[in-house]
Amino acid sequence: MLNSVTMGQYLPVNSPVHKMDPRAKLMVTVLTAVTVLVATNWMGILTVSLWIGLVLAATRIRLVLYWQIYKPLWLLLITSFVFQVVFTPGEPLLLLGLLSLSKTGLVAGGRMLWQMICLLLVAAVLTFSTTPIQLSTALERLLLPLGKLKIPVREFAMAINLALRFVPTLFDESRFLIAAQRSRGADFTRGGVRQRAKGLIPFLIPLLTNIFRRADELAVAMEIRCYRAGAERSTINELKFKLPDYLAVLANLIILIIAL
Amino acid sequence: MVNDSTIALRNLVFNYPGSERPVLDGINAVIKNGEFLAVVGPNGSGKSTLARLICGLLRPSQGQVLVEGLCTVDPRNRIEIRKRVGLVLQNPDNQIVAVRVEEDAAFGPENLNLPSKEIHYRVNHALEQVGLIHLKDRPPQLLSGGEKQRLAIAGLLALRPSFLVLDEPTSMLDPLGRRGVLDVLRGLSGEGMSVVLITHNMDEATAADRVWVLRDGKLAADGTPGSIFSDPVMIRNLELDLPWVTRLANALAGYGLNVPAGIVNTDDMVCFVCRLFKQPS
After folding, report:
1. What residues are paired with B86 via a beta bridge?
2. Of B111, B112, B149, B107, nearest to B132 (Cα)?
3. Mean pLDDT of A6-19
4. Which residue in A99, B29, B88, B100 has a CA-CA distance of 20 to 30 Å to A30?
5. From A230, which residue of chain B is nearest by alpha-carbon distance?
6. Do A217 and B89 touch (CB under 8 A)?
7. Secondary structure (3-state) at A224
8. Cα(first)–Cα(last) distance of chain A, in Å?
9. In B, which residues are within 8 Å of A224 by CB distance?
10. Which of A236, A237, A240 should one mutate to test binding to chain B, selecting the residue with the greatest count of B CBs within 10 A?
């Protein structure tokens, strides 16, 4: 639980994909997703599939782990495939009672299934190889031009990072509070919904007051370290587009053109 | 005459809005560059308020605080004062902003918009000073309380301050963490850093060069640890706890031994006891 929130699904592996600039990864993810959605010709579908396969191999993450993301979703995938096949009008190839299967239906269903599988894989590559903090930094840097429209991109990113930073702290604290209230005889497991909700009050109130106290002290600690909202900041590890990053984005652009 | 490298408190009065009673009431004193100052006093004597006034987080109700000649009230001085005076708070968890030790120590210099190379240099040096360089890739929540406080110190050192103010930095730590933090402070003081340690632990105060005793918002005593803790009248009037070394000295004196006045730290006590055993009885 602790890890699942702060680290997302990040898997620490030493791979070329992990080493890429998170901005490049974000761009490639969006480009690939677009390509998958617009690809209609066989050439396009083939190249995107090959490209995704190549990226998967480059992450050096075992395929079993990718397979796991489909586990909770396979029923949904199959159902939507069946619906697409059955309800796409076309010349019937096969009649099963009232249902008719057409060639166009099969193609449309197959294409949709392929798109969903690809999109899930692409999303998995990004979250497996990038920490949430890297992601929010990348988003911050990519969206920075919006600052000209008076949208406080930098401040939003700082807020997200601080929230991620405090998740484990607050998680520890809530465990501590539950133990403290249990030792005073609180029971969080018995009674109806209403009683249980009521039982949570002695847990939620101290948690909330502590959060405010922490926020207050954090603000002081940040201020004392020269933080000013809206001011220009640098970072210790400057993001840098390197050759592989350029190549990946370029390759993806070419694939998009092929698929169009 | 204002010496440029000091913090000068001039007729400092502070009351919180809506309160009649001043928390600090007419303090006149100077914190010299390079000195290790301990500020002690009972709860509610205004120690933490003093720390926040020195850093310019609070504005004095009357009088002024001059940090190296800069008045803390003037908003134009704010960043310059922040660069000169660092403040470590009590709770080690609430001062950490990043998810890696190195990035947390870098937060201050990042706010100054320094180039990445300079930040790396400063952060590495600061982490070395507090002995955390080997943990720089660790997530801070996996550090012990003492290590977190040392990280907070490193985060301030990376700003290259002249004064380090610590508001009861060890009160939430175990004895081991406490010792680690104190060792770091002694080391920094030895390198010429000015340290202002606010504490209610008298044993910590004996590590300082100079002690201020605050009481009811007034500076009740100002002197070396030896002169303050060995003065029984002052101790009684100020209701101070005694450092354990002083208690030992008093107990030995009770047995009729001739204990010299002003022994407050362990080294002096060890020297004294050794000499005692060498003497032919």
Report:
1. B164
2. B149
3. 78
4. B100
5. B111
6. yes
7. helix
8. 42
9. 55, 57, 82, 86-87, 156
10. A236
pLDDT of A1 over the 60 cut = no
Q: In what order do the strands lie in the sheet with B36-40?
A: B85-88, B163-167, B194-198, B36-40, B210-215, B218-223
Rounded to whole angstroms, how far apart are CA atoms B151 and B127? 7
Structural domain contains residue B250? no
pLDDT of B275 reads 84
Residue B143, classed as helix, strand or coil, is: coil
In chain B, which residues have pLDDT < 70? 1-3, 280-281
Examine residue B111 and state whether it is found in any structural domain, yes or no: yes
Look at residue A11 in the predicted model and tell me its pLDDT.
81
| Number of folded domains that form chain B | 1
Interface of A with B (CB under 8 A): 6, 131, 133, 161-162, 164-165, 168-169, 172, 213-214, 217-218, 220-228, 231-238
Q: How far apart are CA B251 and CA B82, in angstroms?
A: 45
B198: containing domain: 7-242
The two three-digit tokens of residue B261, written as one number: 């006045």
Q: Minimum mean pLDDT among A76-85, A88-97, A117-126, B73-82: which range? A: A88-97
Contacts 24+ apart (CB under 8 A), B185-191: B185/B36, B185/B153, B186/B36, B187/B129, B188/B129, B188/B153, B188/B157, B188/B164, B189/B34, B189/B36, B191/B129
CATH number, domain containing residue B81: 3.40.50.300
Q: Could you give the ipTM of this predicted complex?
A: 0.85
Q: What is the pLDDT of residue A7?
A: 57
Token pair recorded at residue B133: 């360089």
Residue B268 lies in a domain: no
Residue B153's nearest CA partner among B179, B171, B129 is B129
Instruction: Please report whether residue B255 resides in a domain.
Output: no
Is residue A240 scored above 80 in pLDDT? yes
